[in-house]
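re: ur question from yesterday

yeah so i grabbed the chain u mentioned. its 168 aa long if i counted rite. heres the sequnce exactly as i have it in my notes:
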Amino acid sequence: MRIAAAASPANRVEVAEAALKAEREARERAERSLQEAQAAIHDLRTKLGHAVLARDEARDAAHRAESDRRAVEFALAAERDARVKAEKVLQGGDADREPAQQRLREIKAVVRPAKAPVKAVAGGPAAAEKESWMSNVSNGKTRSKSPEPEPKPVRWWIKAKAQKRATT
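ran it thru and got these C-alpha coordinates back, copy pasting raw so excuse formatting
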Protein backbone atom coordinates (compact mmCIF):
# COMPACT_ATOMS: atom_id res chain seq x y z
CA MET A 1 0.00 0.00 0.00
CA ARG A 2 2.87 2.10 0.25
CA ILE A 3 3.02 2.32 -3.44
CA ALA A 4 -0.48 3.60 -3.54
CA ALA A 5 0.41 6.09 -0.85
CA ALA A 6 3.32 7.37 -2.90
CA ALA A 7 1.12 7.83 -5.94
CA SER A 8 -1.46 9.46 -3.95
CA PRO A 9 0.28 12.80 -3.31
CA ALA A 10 0.59 13.44 -7.07
CA ASN A 11 -3.03 12.65 -7.51
CA ARG A 12 -3.88 14.94 -4.69
CA VAL A 13 -2.22 17.86 -6.46
CA GLU A 14 -4.10 17.07 -9.63
CA VAL A 15 -7.31 16.71 -7.67
CA ALA A 16 -6.62 20.01 -5.89
CA GLU A 17 -5.81 21.73 -9.19
CA ALA A 18 -9.03 20.34 -10.73
CA ALA A 19 -11.02 21.53 -7.70
CA LEU A 20 -9.33 24.96 -7.91
CA LYS A 21 -10.15 25.19 -11.61
CA ALA A 22 -13.77 24.25 -10.93
CA GLU A 23 -13.98 26.86 -8.18
CA ARG A 24 -12.53 29.54 -10.48
CA GLU A 25 -15.04 28.68 -13.21
CA ALA A 26 -17.86 28.75 -10.66
CA ARG A 27 -16.62 32.10 -9.37
CA GLU A 28 -16.47 33.54 -12.92
CA ARG A 29 -20.03 32.26 -13.58
CA ALA A 30 -21.18 33.80 -10.32
CA GLU A 31 -19.50 37.14 -11.15
CA ARG A 32 -21.10 37.16 -14.63
CA SER A 33 -24.47 36.36 -13.10
CA LEU A 34 -23.92 39.13 -10.55
CA GLN A 35 -23.07 41.63 -13.31
CA GLU A 36 -26.14 40.58 -15.33
CA ALA A 37 -28.34 40.88 -12.23
CA GLN A 38 -26.88 44.32 -11.44
CA ALA A 39 -27.50 45.45 -15.05
CA ALA A 40 -31.08 44.15 -14.84
CA ILE A 41 -31.55 45.99 -11.52
CA HIS A 42 -30.18 49.19 -13.10
CA ASP A 43 -32.55 48.83 -16.08
CA LEU A 44 -35.51 48.20 -13.79
CA ARG A 45 -34.63 51.20 -11.62
CA THR A 46 -34.37 53.37 -14.74
CA LYS A 47 -37.76 52.14 -15.95
CA LEU A 48 -39.23 52.75 -12.51
CA GLY A 49 -37.80 56.30 -12.50
CA HIS A 50 -39.32 56.99 -15.92
CA ALA A 51 -42.65 55.60 -14.76
CA VAL A 52 -42.57 57.81 -11.65
CA LEU A 53 -41.78 60.88 -13.78
CA ALA A 54 -44.58 60.03 -16.22
CA ARG A 55 -47.00 59.52 -13.31
CA ASP A 56 -46.02 62.88 -11.77
CA GLU A 57 -46.40 64.66 -15.11
CA ALA A 58 -49.80 63.05 -15.66
CA ARG A 59 -50.87 64.04 -12.13
CA ASP A 60 -49.72 67.64 -12.74
CA ALA A 61 -51.53 67.72 -16.08
CA ALA A 62 -54.68 66.43 -14.39
CA HIS A 63 -54.40 69.15 -11.71
CA ARG A 64 -53.91 71.83 -14.40
CA ALA A 65 -56.87 70.49 -16.38
CA GLU A 66 -59.01 70.51 -13.24
CA SER A 67 -57.92 74.07 -12.46
CA ASP A 68 -58.68 75.16 -16.04
CA ARG A 69 -62.07 73.45 -15.86
CA ARG A 70 -62.91 75.31 -12.64
CA ALA A 71 -61.80 78.62 -14.19
CA VAL A 72 -63.96 77.98 -17.25
CA GLU A 73 -66.94 77.06 -15.07
CA PHE A 74 -66.43 80.24 -13.03
CA ALA A 75 -66.23 82.36 -16.20
CA LEU A 76 -69.32 80.63 -17.58
CA ALA A 77 -71.24 81.30 -14.37
CA ALA A 78 -70.16 84.97 -14.45
CA GLU A 79 -71.25 85.23 -18.09
CA ARG A 80 -74.62 83.68 -17.27
CA ASP A 81 -75.12 86.15 -14.43
CA ALA A 82 -74.15 89.05 -16.68
CA ARG A 83 -76.53 87.80 -19.39
CA VAL A 84 -79.40 87.51 -16.90
CA LYS A 85 -78.70 91.03 -15.63
CA ALA A 86 -78.51 92.36 -19.19
CA GLU A 87 -81.82 90.71 -20.05
CA LYS A 88 -83.41 92.28 -16.97
CA VAL A 89 -82.02 95.69 -17.93
CA LEU A 90 -83.21 95.21 -21.48
CA GLN A 91 -86.69 94.29 -20.32
CA GLY A 92 -86.72 97.31 -18.01
CA GLY A 93 -85.38 99.46 -20.85
CA ASP A 94 -88.21 98.39 -23.12
CA ALA A 95 -90.70 99.49 -20.48
CA ASP A 96 -88.95 102.87 -20.10
CA ARG A 97 -88.49 103.39 -23.84
CA GLU A 98 -92.16 103.74 -24.76
CA PRO A 99 -92.86 106.69 -22.41
CA ALA A 100 -89.66 108.37 -23.58
CA GLN A 101 -90.68 107.99 -27.22
CA GLN A 102 -94.12 109.40 -26.43
CA ARG A 103 -92.53 112.42 -24.71
CA LEU A 104 -90.22 112.95 -27.71
CA ARG A 105 -93.21 112.97 -30.06
CA GLU A 106 -94.93 115.51 -27.84
CA ILE A 107 -91.86 117.76 -27.82
CA LYS A 108 -91.52 117.51 -31.61
CA ALA A 109 -95.17 118.43 -32.01
CA VAL A 110 -94.72 121.53 -29.85
CA VAL A 111 -91.41 122.70 -31.27
CA ARG A 112 -91.53 122.88 -35.05
CA PRO A 113 -88.30 123.88 -36.74
CA ALA A 114 -88.79 127.38 -38.12
CA LYS A 115 -87.45 128.39 -41.52
CA ALA A 116 -84.34 130.50 -41.36
CA PRO A 117 -85.27 134.16 -41.79
CA VAL A 118 -83.94 136.03 -44.82
CA LYS A 119 -81.12 138.29 -43.80
CA ALA A 120 -81.16 141.91 -44.76
CA VAL A 121 -77.61 142.84 -45.60
CA ALA A 122 -76.50 146.41 -45.97
CA GLY A 123 -75.35 147.07 -49.49
CA GLY A 124 -78.28 145.69 -51.45
CA PRO A 125 -78.91 142.47 -53.30
CA ALA A 126 -75.30 142.02 -54.49
CA ALA A 127 -74.05 142.11 -50.92
CA ALA A 128 -76.80 139.69 -49.88
CA GLU A 129 -75.73 137.30 -52.66
CA LYS A 130 -72.10 137.59 -51.54
CA GLU A 131 -73.17 136.95 -47.94
CA SER A 132 -75.16 133.91 -49.08
CA TRP A 133 -72.18 132.64 -51.08
CA MET A 134 -69.87 133.08 -48.07
CA SER A 135 -72.23 131.12 -45.83
CA ASN A 136 -72.36 128.32 -48.41
CA VAL A 137 -68.55 128.21 -48.55
CA SER A 138 -68.31 128.08 -44.77
CA ASN A 139 -70.85 125.21 -44.75
CA GLY A 140 -68.82 123.32 -47.32
CA LYS A 141 -71.21 124.09 -50.18
CA THR A 142 -69.63 125.77 -53.17
CA ARG A 143 -72.48 125.95 -55.64
CA SER A 144 -72.51 128.88 -57.99
CA LYS A 145 -75.63 131.08 -57.95
CA SER A 146 -75.27 132.07 -61.60
CA PRO A 147 -76.53 129.62 -64.24
CA GLU A 148 -73.82 130.72 -66.73
CA PRO A 149 -71.43 127.97 -67.84
CA GLU A 150 -67.74 128.58 -67.24
CA PRO A 151 -65.72 129.65 -70.28
CA LYS A 152 -63.57 127.07 -72.05
CA PRO A 153 -59.84 127.17 -71.26
CA VAL A 154 -57.47 128.67 -73.80
CA ARG A 155 -55.64 126.11 -75.96
CA TRP A 156 -52.16 127.60 -75.61
CA TRP A 157 -52.47 127.45 -71.81
CA ILE A 158 -53.43 123.74 -71.87
CA LYS A 159 -50.51 122.92 -74.23
CA ALA A 160 -48.03 124.80 -72.06
CA LYS A 161 -49.23 122.99 -68.95
CA ALA A 162 -49.00 119.61 -70.69
CA GLN A 163 -45.43 120.37 -71.82
CA LYS A 164 -44.48 121.32 -68.26
CA ARG A 165 -45.76 118.01 -66.96
CA ALA A 166 -43.87 116.10 -69.66
CA THR A 167 -40.56 117.72 -68.73
CA THR A 168 -40.89 117.12 -64.98
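noticed a couple things. The chain is about 80% helix and 0% strand. also The longest helix spans residues 2-110.
anyway ttyl
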